[in-house]
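CinA family protein structure dump, as promised
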Amino acid sequence: MDDIKSLAEQIGRVLQTKGLFLATAESCTGGGVGYAITEIPGSSDWFDCGFITYSNTAKAELLDVPEALIAQFGSVSEEVVEAMAEGAIANSSAHVAIATTGIAGPGGAVPGKPVGTVCFGWAKDEHVHTERLVFSGDRQSVRQQTIVHALKGLLRFLEQAG
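structure tokens r here:
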């Protein structure tokens, strides 16, 4: 947990220095990224809001993810997580967004997407980066690894996106 707190603190410093606000769009992490961020005192200076869009309907209604995109690629896809990140920015006052969607388990696996499959999206302006990873372990472990990777990825993204 100290690793998560340290990452969140670093993110806060970077966002505050750049004058940017963050939004989260989470599915499999159920608000875990937003929770980690808001554990940091003063996070209201750089965190705008979080969307927990567990269902496909919520992804479509709250983040404007096209239902056709979900139908074509599945909710656990780089295409959908990109749309989630873009939707978080479009539907908030944030400049930067992080999105997660995945299969934490123990069920939910589909052909080509085993339990532990997680897609990540980071967005700022016209820059969007996505990744797809497969984590091992139980539900709690997959979710924890997802939060850590999401935060580490955001730090890298902020360095690259400017």
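The beta strands are 22-26, 47-52, 96-102, 117-124, 127-134.
lmk if u need the other ones
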